[in-house]
UniProtKB/TrEMBL annotation:
SUPFAM superfamilies: Ribonuclease H-like (SSF53098). One of its GO terms (molecular function) is nucleic acid binding. The lineage of its organism: Eukaryota, Viridiplantae, Streptophyta, Embryophyta, Tracheophyta. It comes from Cuscuta europaea (European dodder). This is Integrase catalytic domain-containing protein. PANTHER family: RNA-DIRECTED DNA POLYMERASE, TRANSPOSASE, PUTATIVE-RELATED. It comes from the Eukaryota.
Length: 98
């Protein structure tokens, strides 16, 4: 579910002889912006680690508007290339990155 686009709202206001009080049909919708987010696809590597912890991938995410239940605004993900095991470390700030 969702809401009509600004173009549809303008069209309805004209066809139904209604005029909007706000006059701002181009206001962005936070949920729509987040729903349209994409991420870049990583091409698979032909080189894989031969042993655990030989190669790890780390990424810091955040800040988030609302903290987690433990007060974290950021989190660190760690992925072992060999086993594909994933660890997540919650953090209140970026300065906590180990």
């Amino acid at each position: 579910m969702g809401h009509p686009s600004p173009r549809v709202i303008r069209l309805l206001s004209v066809t139904q002889n209604k005029v909007s009080n706000s006059g701002n049909f181009n206001k962005s919708c936070d949920i729509c912006a987040r729903a349209k987010q994409t991420r870049e696809i990583f091409t698979p590597s032909i080189n894989r680690a031969l042993h655990m912890f030989e190669l790890i991938h780390c990424d810091v995410w955040g800040p988030y508007r609302e903290p987690s239940t433990c007060g974290a605004y950021y989190f660190l993900t760690i992925v072992d290339d060999y086993s594909r095991a994933v660890w997540v470390h919650l953090m209140a700030g970026k300065m906590e990155v180990p």
